[in-house]
Amino acid sequence: MQEKLHALKEEALTKVAQAEDLKALEAVRVGYLGKKGPMTEVLRGMGKLSPEERPVVGELANKVREAITTALEEKKQRFEADVLNTQLKTETIDVTLPGRPVNLGGPHLLTSIVTEIEDLFIGMGFDIKEGPEVETDYYNFEALNLPKDHPARDMQDSFYITEELLLRTHTSPVQARTMGEYRGNKPVKMICPGKVYRRDTDDATHSHQFTQVEGLYVDKNVRMSDLKGVLNQFAKQFFGEEREIRLRPSFFPFTEPSVEMDISCKVCHGKGCSVCKQTGWIEILGGGMVHPDVLKMAGYDPEIYSGFAFGMGPERIAMLKYGVDDIRHFYTNDQRFLTQYHKA
Ligand code: 2NL
Fold first, then answer.
1. In terms of pTM, does the model score above 0.70?
2. Rounded mean pLDDT, 124-150
């Protein structure tokens, strides 16, 4: 019996040594240690042994089983290590590969420009006000000294919804509404940014929908020099300290006197170039002293109160600041255009 166990051990260990993969190893385990294997058979035959022999054979059988189990386990671990090593060798990951880009959104160029304008005027004590884009004929025209049949209504061909309702052609009605709210006894210092609409054929410099930022300051003793000071401050902060401004006489139905403001050309420093059309100056905005009739209609006594107002187009300003050559870029939403103005 003991000889048979020794022989079994040698045989099993040789088979383990010869096994070439995990499957072969498992076959050896089942073959020698399994229920139908020779080890089980030996243990079953123990009952026929004498009481002296039994513990000796039992101990040997345990040792043999242990030796085979250990050999199987060691070989199994070696196979598993081999599998892992080949996997590590063949399935390498290049950690230096650049990652996939994550496309982050950002504010539209116009949004950034309007926010910047807002911040500059907030810094000078102006409030931000908004109002409806569908406006009444009264607030869009009448309250701004543009009565029915006024020739200036032709200047701004409008989108009418009904006889009395239209898409606002400027943001001025927001200011007329605010003055009306304050009932003629409180100063107004506000800017109103927003979308406006004109019946125009779209091309590189015209759009049927664009943005406007208007400003209004009504109080006692507001003068033209206050307008010039505020606009000069704005121009220098927005375009650069080295820029000069000039005011030229102009006409608007809602201001008297009216002006247009130019800034000195950065490209030629006033000598004349294609950007400033050989004049050395670039037109930026229009403004003036609020017409006494506009103040009166809003409930302010023009003998006590005076005010200045101005209006600018952020598209035009963005085009000048960044050299954008077509106003339609702001609305066609080509990502190649939009992402150029996203901050890193
Ligand atoms: C321009 C010129 C201007 C105003 C807007 C205004 C508003 C009220 C009273 C008086 Cl409530 N005036 N606004 C005045 C002059 C010019 O805009 O070229 N905008 C793009």
1. yes
2. 94
Pair of tokens at residue 271: 């000598």
206-263 confidence digits (pLDDT tens): 999 999 999 999 999 999 999 999 999 999 999 999 999 999 999 999 999 999 999 9
Judge if 85 and 129 occupy the same domain.
no
Domain that holds residue 36: 2-90
* Residue 190, domain CATH: 3.30.930.10
Residue 288's CB is within 10 A of a number of other CB atoms, namely 24
Query: Which of 126, 182, 214 to probe ligand 1 with, by most ligand atoms within 8 A of CB?
Result: 214
Question: Could you tell me what percent of the chain has a pLDDT over 70?
Answer: 99
CA–CA separation, 116 vs 213, rounded Å?
A: 12
Q: What is the number of alpha carbons within 13 Å of residue 322 lying toward its C-beta? A: 19
Ligand 1, pocket-test mutation among 142, 205, 252, 312, most atoms within 8 A of CB: 252
